[in-house]
Amino acid sequence: LLETYRTSRNDRKRLTDFQNPFHPLMPLRIPLEPQQSFVDEDSSDEENLLQEKLRKKRKSPFENCYLCKIDPTSQHLHTLGNFIEQKDEEIDIKIPIKISLIPSFYEQRKLYVDIVREHLSAFARKGENMACFRAGITVYTFCCNESFRRDEYCDHYELCHMDVDDYIGRCPMYTDGCPFFYYKKAPKWGSLRFSEYLSCVIHCPPEVPTKIPYTGISLCELPKDVLHEIVQYLDSCSLRCLSATNHYLRRLCFENFCSASMVHIKWERSETHSWYEKCFMWEFSTSQRRIIDWNNQSTLPISDHLCECEFNVAEKYEAKKIALPFMAHQKN
């Protein structure tokens, strides 16, 4: 056994087989030229494998490109800082944990995401626009994902995506936690409310007192001709709410106003964890008619609030004012 170690390591590895992966079968089948002295080879197979991986990593300078790790499918220029080879002894640098103080307004409502209007498109490559993210633009794009008919898309976009910022105004100190808000504008007829059933803002008509006393007749007891005359003035959002009351009104809405509805495919998960088409489902959208007439509300509430806002703390500068060169020239 000691005589076999006088041969080189490469020769011994060449004589190994499947049954003897670590040491060749004794005695050696092929006569090899013995070495005059033992060669200092203390490295094991695992150490040689690690060294081989390290050599491959040094041959590929763009292995640790951070843009490739963020978005591997994007086409970009690799960072040039990866040409520098890493040292064998890596120093562990502990990054200090940044503690951000969350205002009480967001902490009470469990809002931990900073949502802003400026955002990138869902089809834009995030890896190529890292500078925009550092400037304050949101990384994730929140989509509406609501389904509408083609003739209803304009009304929905104008009501829920264009005019949504003009409904409610907030205190300028809302970033510090002030919960005050006021209505900047309101429709001339009716009011705006948030529907939990539809998960959207809806236009509610005002309650008009009727001169005819209530006789106790429900809506389902009316003749079909009368119901048809009433329901034909409703939009898709109202039809959706009306069809959810009972089976009779649902059948009435879809039989007489099926042209205003949509057909969806209902997907169901099977036992093999795959999805298949179960059935087709009729449904009305949450689209509403366009609001034409608006009333601009007064700005007095926000003016009165700023005088009493506890977050509006005035800072007093005790240092003397510095005269600008232009002002000093005028005095002279």
TrEMBL record:
PROSITE patterns (UniProt xref): FBOX
Domain F-box: 216-270
UniProt feature coiled coil, ranges: none
Signal peptide (UniProt feature, chain positions): none
Name listed for the protein in its UniProt record: F-box domain-containing protein
One Pfam family recorded for the sequence: F-box_4
InterPro entries associated with the record: F-box-like_dom_sf (IPR036047), F-box_dom (IPR001810), Fbxo30/Fbxo40 (IPR031890)
GO molecular function terms attached to this record: ubiquitin protein ligase activity
Transmembrane segments: none
Top-level lineage group: Eukaryota
